[in-house]
Amino acid sequence: MNKKHLLLAxxxxxxxxxxxxxxxxxxxxxxxAVQQEPTQQEPAAKEEAPAEPTEAPTxxxxxxxxxxxxxxxxxxxxxxxxxxxxxxxxxxxxDVTTLRTHYGGEYRDVxxxxxxxxxxxxxxxxxxxxxxxxxxxxxxxxxDEKTLDYIPxxxxxxxxxxxxxxxxxxxxxxxxxxxxxxxTAQDFQWTYDQVIKPENEFPYLSQLDFITSYKALDDYTLxxxxxxxxxxxxxxxxxxxxxxPKHIWENLDWSDPEKNPEINSPSVVSGPYKLREWxxxxxxxxxxxxxxxxxxxxxxxxxILEIVPxxxxxxxxxxxxxxxxxVITPENLEEARxxxxxxxxxxxxxxxxxxxIGLNMREGFATHDINVRHAINYAxxxxxxxxxxxxxxxxxxxxxxxETSWVYNPDVPxxxxxxxxxxxxxxxxxxxxxxGKMLDKDGxxxxxxxxxxxxxxxTAELIAVTVQDYLRKVGVEANIEALEWASFLxxxxxxxxxxxxxxxxxxxxxxxxxxxxxWAEENIPELNSVAYINKDMEALFKEAGKTYDxxxxxxxxxxxxxxxxxxxxxxxLYYRKAWSGQNNRIKGIEPTxxxxxxxxxxxxxxxxx
Amino acid sequence: MTRYIIRRxxxxxxxxxxxxxxxxxxxxxxxxxxxxxxxxxxxSTTADVDRLKLAYGLNRSIPVQYLTWLTGEDWLPKxxxxxxxxxxxxxDRCGKGVLRLDFGRSFYFxxxxxxxxxTERIPATFTLALASLILSVVGGVPLGVYAAIRRGRLPDxxxxxxxxxxxTVPHWWLGLLLLIILGGYLGLVPLSGMYTVGDGSLLxxxxxxxxxxxxxxxxxxxxxxxxxxxxxxxxxxxxxxRTARAKGLTEKAVVWxxxxxxxxxxxxxxxxxxxxxxxxxxxxxxxxFSWPGMGRLFITAVNARxxxxxxxxxxxxxxxxxxxxxxxxxxxxxVDPRVRYDITK
Lengths: 609, 345
What we know:
- By secondary structure, chain A is an alpha+beta fold.
- Chain A has helices at about 1-25, 125-135, 185-195, 235-240, 245-250, 310-320, 330-335, 370-380, 380-390, 420-430, 460-475, 485-490, 535-545, 550-565; strands spanning about 90, 105-110, 140-145, 150, 155-160, 165-170, 210-220, 220-225, 275-280, 285-290, 300-305, 340-345, 355-360, 395, 430-435, 435-440, 445-450, 475-480, 500-505, 570-575, 580-585, 585, 605.
- In chain A, the strands form 7 sheets. Chain A has a 6-stranded mixed beta sheet. Chain A has a 5-stranded antiparallel beta sheet with strand order 1-5-6-8-7.
- In chain A, a hairpin with a 6-residue loop joins β3 and β4 (about 150).
- In chain A, α8 (about 370-380) runs antiparallel to α10 (about 420-430) and α13 packs antiparallel against α14 (about 550-565).
- The radius of gyration of chain A is 26 Å and the shape is globular.
- The model of chain A is unreliable at about 1-85 (pLDDT under 50).
- In chain B, α6 packs antiparallel against α7 (about 155-165), α6 packs across α12 and α7 packs across α9 (about 200-235).
- Chain B is globular, with a radius of gyration of 25 Å.
- At the A-B interface, α1, β11, α6 and α12 of A face α1, α2, α8, α12 and α13 of B.
């Protein structure tokens, strides 16, 4: 009996292990079902967010835009750097004391993933930054929702020294923490001082490298210094530090949630809402903060966010009215537009997500040859592909910046579909076209390894198959390999990759300079996975980054776009529209290029008759 | 019995230990890692990545990482080969190791003890697993009995065919379908969660539980009714059943008192397995039904390569599995007096 039971026990463990393991693979799908393109809003800590890799599982390219809204004042993407020059002072004439008038009600939100922590300097996921944006605010400046210029926000005014290296921010004097204590420059400086300690494990510490000094001159004056002119500096620094309440945090442990309860249940906050209750993986409830500095408390009394991991169910909840918003996948969009109780808002975001095919430029790969890269470009009908894959929710992209960017250059080669030209270019590269096959010097058909991930992404799969078809028409064989997310990242980031092409996405930034990172030689192989090296292009980026002269910068970025489009390290495909469904009882919604959440505190509820 | 339990306890300990070794190796061999996501984040540099690796102790070799996971790092030499950066910086942040019941701090949940992350979610999973189990017994036993006494006739065929049919579709998918129809279109059941936020009364909780538990019970109905049907048929042919009938007992008394009691033995064995199945099935069900349990945690932990949480889940899962088997053994001895473990030894 004993032996039998021991065996049974072993078997059960083995089985449960296997089941657990199996459980893991099909369910990594629901997790990328978390794939909803995350809420575009990124609160202060993430504010200057450069190209968010939309490749991240949380933002994989299947589905778009759940309607999570976080406070707008905190949000931005990156500096447009406006007409900013050295020796300038900007003062706000905005009235921030008039209160809102439509108080009341409860907003029922849904999200496919839960936050990790309320600590603004430990997390990297969008769900967490959403939660943090509800309770903390830190944007000295914010992006104007129409012009996309930086305008004073928590700072009433700011000035830049003549040499362009010293930035002085004058904080508004009437801002308060939720416990009534004033929000001061000391809070900012204290927070900064903690964040830069390496042992405090801020994942984006290198983002602070350009700052040489960050000081509170008095309670309401903040002085930030840099050592060389850096175009995105103003935008970067205006949201870099989300202050934590020094008078509460000072005596608490910075990173251990066991010793510092404020980390997971902040009691003293600066944002539009206060945390009432957080049940992990279930829901979180926020109540309006009466002491919120920007026009007082938000209109809506409380926000309940339920975690619904399955995006289909999240959609059903909106449809049935159980929640005010839901996840609308591209497949559901048409149906959602016709729902009686829901309004679908649509916009072209300034920080658009764009999708491309990366071509391996390393020596030894067919795509090392510029003629081959051009040939592949001509062989693919990108317009038809966009229409078929995005069903009208995407626009053709030819350059490294989408049309929505202020530096967009419409005058770059677009490689319109031309299979004959493609064949010609392949022949120029030394291939022979014979019996419908593109043969190399050894008489072997040109075969390219084409990878994408995560393997659950229907959009990526559709792109891969379509491209394979187009290549076949010019006699080139594409071997498609669909990889699980982590394996895909491993493959694209490999020092010696084996693929010829991969499908990727980036989130565009309003500040064009941030995109430099994905083209820089030093970022091979992680961000610059295709190993694109062009010294001229890098020099132009550096030039453009070292001035505040907008016109000059625009010129440089346009040159850069031309160079990169000519070199074709990527086949540029399309950039995406964004949308969000909201119950008709929610009023005051005005999406702009910044998204839908920028004025969320002004939303109000009007019960339907 | 006590001796038997002790012996089994020691066996189980080694069993779990070996399985952790295997699990650790497999998890580590999987592509990616806890901070891989930073590789493709334009906001972080290689320096950021290296700094975090050092802090988490991911720069150490896998055997060392396993050793510290098992035995802690506070007794090891004070250098970066053996200790994590956190432990180097602050001695009270050193891991104590699983042997001292310290499962470590979660990477993904930013320093929360792995064990807390898990215990927080145990009640949800157990509620669902237990409810499914009860429903599957309540539904499966009568089905099996009925099929057996109507053997070869229409009810038997219907039960057999329909259980097979239901089994051919994945249950989580069936759950999704039922949820969208019953919850979304008909509004009979809530679409998500364990209870309505702000309510949480027993009735409300039952309302939320009913569909997930029913879908979770489907596997049990099929399994139980088949095992039971087979065993019942076997017992029905026994002499003592004929005797019972000859004594003039009612058919009801024969079936329920004499046949079922004897047919139920193998069924009890199946029980522990079913419970484990319900637990592992939870990985999918919990996602579909927005149930805040361990299954979803497991997905999150695996996706984030959160080794401490993954390993803690593994150890606790193995422990529960072994506990389940042990409980079945004890149940056995109650149901069947012939089974005793501590007879002579």
